[in-house]
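re: ur question from earlier - yeah i can do the single chain one, its not a big deal. heres the input i used so u can compare w yours
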Amino acid sequence: MLDSILSQIATWIWGPWLIALLFGTHLFLTWRTGLIQRRLGLALRLSVTKEPGAPGDVSQFGALMTALAATIGTGNIYGVAGAVLLGGPGAVLWMWLTGVFGIATKYSEALLAVKYRFINSRGEMSGGPMIVLERALNARWAGILFAIFTSVAAFGIGNMAQSNAIVEMVVVKKAILGLSQPDTSIRVGLGLLLTLATGAVILGGIRSIARFCGFIVPFMAFFYIAGCIIILLSVWDRIPATISLIFTSAFAGQAAFGGFVGAGIAEAVRYGIARGLFSNESGLGSAPIAAAAARTSDPVRQALVSGTGTFWDTVVVCALTGLVIVSSGDWATPDINKAKLCDLAFRHLGFFGDIILIGGLLTFVFSTILGWGYYGEKSVEYLLGIRAVLPYRLLWVVAVFIGAIWKSDAVWNFCDIMNGLMALPNLAALLLLSGVIAAETRRYFSQHP
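and the output i got, formated as tokens:
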């Protein structure tokens, strides 16, 4: 009953109106920033360049890794699989396009977050859409709404969906992993392990999170990307047909065959863009909260660095996952779910494929839980003050365990609902302040041609 209700709400929120608003904002900001995507080379260089003496709590690289930790998660694996199952192979192209144009939106979000940030009573930077809405648009009520949606949404997209995903995969793979315990025991045991690990890092705040993410994120991304490339090289002869299928399905839909029920263009667009947002979070308003903590002397500088997050997350990682899943053909298997589809797609490399999938999911899940914990606590700080941060962290740690034993469909539908509600005030701020974004961009590049 709960699953059905959540599914209906998610379907309404992610109707054509929100998809048009989201993708339209990506296109509009691409134009307003003068096609900022063409500055990707500069942005990548800045992401590994330190700026000593600049104000902020963590390095630009640390802020980017914290944001990437939150964005590179189950959406890059399960989210892609779910999009293909519900929208057909064409959903992969729409996910990819959401990433390409979403770079401009992620850039714009971060620019505003750094421009309007301030130092709180603990001497730490505070910023994000809620601060932008209050300080730039004098709309504290909208900032409060965003903070409420974010603090609640964090428990879905950044917490329970993550712990649930890794538990589901371990249950599917328990024979290969040599586990003979009942599924319930596996869920409880792994849930407790994730809970303890989360508490050990997250209670130290942004500096602890950034240090850990700076170590784990580059490693996990390289490991997963390399694994996907090896899988694709093993089926290189299928790649042209796979790419052709993705493009044709994106604009013509996909007829039913095998166990696949078929999907039209609307389904490909809806699930591709929705899962694209779940993966890269461009337009969601979450990543700018981490960007606001960066040590940087100019909002545009950090905005460029933040934009690379969407490039790595969706343009690279999600695209590779989509190619692996579609090229396998397993998405047409009868009565298949996200976890089983990923299992079959990566199993073609035998034990090595299992290592890629399980290792990728485990590191993606844990890093995302850490990154989103920071987003949630900054939203609660905005709503209730600094004293509420520690209780929120403790509640966050407990929620990791709850997610491990909660039913998957309910978690994912809950995520879709909260994502949509978060996006609305943030997108409104981006559109209303697009003139500021354009002016700041022109100023910076006139000084740094």
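The radius of gyration is 20 Å. not sure if urs matches, ping me
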